[in-house]
Amino acid sequence: MIAFFLMALLGQITAQEEQNLTWFTNLEVAKEYAAANEKDILMVFAGSDWCRPCKRFKKDILDAKKFKTWGSEEVVILYLDFPAKKKNRLSKDQTAHNEALSEQYNKSGYLPYLLLIDSEENVIGNPKYWGQSPKKFVKELMADMTP
After folding, report:
1. Residue 136: inside a domain
2. In angstroms, what CA-CA distances link 53 with 48, 59, 61, 66, 131?
3. Beta carbons within 10 angstroms of residue 17's beta carbon
4. Are 21 and 78 in contact (CB under 8 A)?
5. Which residues contact 147 (CB under 8 A, 6 or more apart)?
6. Domain contains 56
7. What is the pLDDT of residues 78-104, one digit of tens each?
8. pTM above 0.70, yes or no
9. Domain total for the chain?
10. Which is nearest to 138 in space by CA: 109, 114, 108, 107?
11. Is the residue at 45 inside a domain?
12. What is the predicted pLDDT for the residue at 143?
């Protein structure tokens, strides 16, 4: 009985320690959340099902525990996906939303493309992902962040 209680308690502690990033797919909602929580927004333009560097960025950075721990306190993720496979197709509204933001912020169409903005859509930085570790990426991202 005591062992069961200790295991349950350990499970709760572990769950509380794991941080989750706040993700959005809508700019207006992301801006409202960022403003209310005094955070910047990391816009991520990605092709989730066909772009190898995009997949790598998601796996190696966004899903990394070190980035999640830091990012949950510092940034809001605005994930703008451009999937190619029919089974992953987004709604027409979401596709139009993502394409409009790409026209505004990522005219070259490069993927993955990262842009750091504040809650008023002022561009703060354009971090680059070139395969660096989460620790190094966070260090470079922090150099762009608003005080």
Report:
1. yes
2. 9, 10, 11, 19, 8
3. 9
4. no
5. none
6. yes
7. 999 999 999 999 999 999 999 999 999
8. yes
9. 1
10. 114
11. yes
12. 83
Tell which residue, 17, 11, 128, 129, has the closest CA to residue 72. 17
Within-domain flag for 13: no
**pLDDT confidence tier of residue 19, bands split at 50, 70 and 90:** low
Q: Look at the block and give the residue holding tokens 């493309």.
A: 113
> What pLDDT is stored for residue 13 in this prediction?
33
Residue 17 confidence (pLDDT) above 60: no
Residue 6 scores a pLDDT above 60:
no
Residue recorded with tokens 């960022």? 34
Read off the amino acid at residue 64.
A
Q: Answer yes or no: are the C-beta atoms of 67 and 61 closer than 8 Å.
A: yes
Query: Which domain does 53 fall in, by range?
Result: 20-144
| E strand or H helix at 24 | strand 22-24
Q: How many helices (H) and strands (E) does the chain have?
A: 6, 5
**Residue 53: which CATH number?**
3.40.30.10
**pLDDT of 146:** 57
